[in-house]
Amino acid sequence: MTDTPLEAQSSRQPSLDYVLPFRLDGHNIHGRVVQLSDLATQVLTRHDYPEAVNRLLGEALVLVSMLGTMLKFDGRFILQLHGKGAISTLMVDYAPHAEGVGEMRGFAQFDEAAVHEALKQDTSPMGLLGEGSHMAFTVDQGADMERYQGIVPLEGETLAEAALEYFQRSEQIGTSLKLAAAPLLLAGGKVEWRAGGIVVQQTAATGGIDLPPEGDPDYVDEEWNRLKILLETTQDSELLDADIEPQTLAFRLFHEEGVRVFDTRPLRFACPCSRDRVHNMLRGLPEDDQKEMQTQETIEIHCDFCNEQYVFAPHEAFVTSSQD
Ligand SMILES: [Zn+2]
Predict the structure, then answer these.
(1) Using one digit for the tens of pLDDT, what is the confidence trace for 265-280?
(2) Cα 321 to middle of ligand 1, angstroms
(3) Taking each helix axis from N to C terminus, what angle separates 159-166 and 51-68, rounded to the nearest 10 degrees?
(4) How much distance in Å is there from the Cα of 271 to the middle of ligand 1?
(5) What global pTM score does this model have?
(6) 104 C-alpha to ligand 1 centroid (Å)
(7) Domains of the chain
(8) In principle, which of 76, 186, 187, 310 could form an S-S bond with 301, CB 3.0–4.6 Å?
């Protein structure tokens, strides 16, 4: 990664969806600004979800893009919300692609009637998941590698609050973040989505902002508190405005802290499912399952992520096709 002075960042990035990493010089703090427009629209208009579900899924896309681009790995980074309420599952994943583009997708499973009933009671998007829900982060590096998973109770009024709770519990790294997602109504009833966010995080290195002295419960890190308050002043409208470059947003907030921005990390929607992969999966099923499925008129496999439907006739589903 090369350091790029802020002044040099004048031309608009070709990608509509990206993460901008930055550092605050003089502090051990790094951050990210996320802007998603095409990716958010592709994921969220692919399904016919209620707006409140899409808002939560849009924020989850932002959160996963922040975290996924921080990890150095080859594999898939997955966020799952396990709900006990109207929404039962909300899932977003991120996979780095060879060309340096992060590929993302997401879906939600919910009880439509329960969602509408809850929304009548002014339930917040997070409230749709219900009491006793959980949040899980998984790093999946493939079949031969160990899966890392962290699971925490889902706490907070918003997904950003829930994520902060996760950082406090599991990583104990000072973190502050904002997430936003909203539909954009265009002429002719067309809808696009915008999602965005900003995060700052302390790094464990020495110098800059002091780590709390051990055994002092009253220690207050004034510098860190001041930066968190600055971040809190960000408006959703700023995070969602595709005309505000992320560099501008970072500079607007932290110009006095010596903002240094790095190369942006482009993102795009992609789902790796295909008819061949589904076919392979079917042929790998236990024999009993295959026999049972062969009694069906057609075998239909649905990809929750991209909404693609794969239909097989029973006689073709379990045999090796001529192209294989
Ligand atoms: Zn798919």
Answers:
(1) 999 999 999 999 999 9
(2) 21
(3) 30
(4) 5
(5) 0.88
(6) 11
(7) 12-269 (3.55.30.10), 275-317 (3.90.1280.10)
(8) 310
